[in-house]
């Protein structure tokens, strides 16, 4: 019954882009399946599949998602949009405050 307990979370590791590129290359070569590569390097299969998918998007061999550059730009635009919305909110509050003061 000991196996019925919760799994301990996998420790988070810092993985370099070079390492990811090597793993993707191994998978794309076709010598081994994605699951086998993940097991050999003690990685999750889901992570390896995401790395392969992103590499294919970046290379242009796939078109069902955003490239890394597009993701970066989207994150920047969302951040800028959030800041601008805060600016508008501040200006609305200031306008309401000064409108009450002048009456």
TrEMBL record:
Q: Which UniProt keywords apply?
A: Coiled coil
Its Gene Ontology biological processes? Answer: DNA transposition
GO MF annotations, alphabetized: DNA binding; transposase activity
Q: Which SUPFAM superfamilies match?
A: Homeodomain-like (SSF46689)
Instruction: Name the InterPro entries for this protein.
Output: Homeodomain-like_sf (IPR009057), RD_transcriptional_regulator (IPR051839), Transposase_8 (IPR002514)
The coiled-coil regions, if any, are 67-94
Q: What is this protein called?
A: Transposase
């Amino acid at each position: 019954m000991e196996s019925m307990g919760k799994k301990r979370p996998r420790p988070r590791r810092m993985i370099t882009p070079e390492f990811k590129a090597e793993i993707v290359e191994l998978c794309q070569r076709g010598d081994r399946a994605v699951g086998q590569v993940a097991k050999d390097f003690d990685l999750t299969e889901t992570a390896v599949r995401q790395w392969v998918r992103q590499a294919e998007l970046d290379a242009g061999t796939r078109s069902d998602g955003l490239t890394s550059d597009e993701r970066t730009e989207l994150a920047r635009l969302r951040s800028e949009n959030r800041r601008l919305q805060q600016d508008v909110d501040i200006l609305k509050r200031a306008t309401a405050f000064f409108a009450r003061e002048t009456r």
